[in-house]
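User: Design a sequence. Structure:
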């Protein structure tokens, strides 16, 4: 079987798998947690999509334990894979696939923002909320250096730990036309 030129899209450009990946992003969760967090997804559908993400290497089973005669799995997500499309894959994508991936990201971002606003504690958590847009002037080498330095800067903050809140950082870089 020939490998797809767009494996990230084959797996993640499905709305349910994208929602699962977003819920696991930066934390360890069980399928029970996912069922609670995504109540509109039937359990059998959820399990099928979790299995697809495990098979593709996006989700990892970090622990298993027996619970009432069944095995409960604790899952983790490789943050270095999700949303990362390498140059080969990006070139294999059609313009419509790029639009679809970008719109899916924007839709999830808007839904997450709505969830924060509707949660009722927006003003108590204002120090964790921010949105802005900047114009940077970068050569191709500068952009590579910026991305490398940024990855180094955020790496210590990617692991869940006691006493720390999960804050999702979404960034886009677009060439100005």
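Assistant: Done.
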């Amino acid at each position: 079987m020939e490998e797809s030129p767009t494996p990230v899209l084959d797996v993640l450009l499905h709305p349910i798998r994208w929602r699962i990946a977003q819920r696991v992003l930066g934390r360890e969760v069980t399928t029970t947690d996912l069922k609670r967090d995504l109540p509109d997804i039937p359990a059998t559908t959820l399990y099928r999509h979790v299995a697809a993400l495990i098979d593709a290497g996006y989700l990892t089973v970090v622990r298993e334990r027996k619970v009432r005669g069944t095995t409960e799995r604790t899952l983790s997500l490789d943050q270095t894979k999700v949303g990362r499309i390498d140059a080969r894959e990006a070139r294999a994508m059609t313009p419509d696939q790029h639009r679809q991936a970008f719109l899916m990201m924007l839709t999830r971002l808007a839904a997450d923002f709505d969830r924060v606003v509707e949660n009722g504690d927006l003003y108590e958590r204002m120090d964790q909320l921010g949105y802005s847009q900047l114009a940077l002037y970068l050569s191709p080498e500068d952009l590579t250096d910026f991305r490398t330095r940024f990855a180094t800067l955020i790496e210590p903050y990617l692991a869940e730990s006691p006493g720390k809140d999960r804050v999702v950082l979404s960034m886009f870089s677009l060439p100005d036309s």
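The chain has a mean pLDDT of 84. The CA atoms of residues 57 and 157 lie 22 Å apart.
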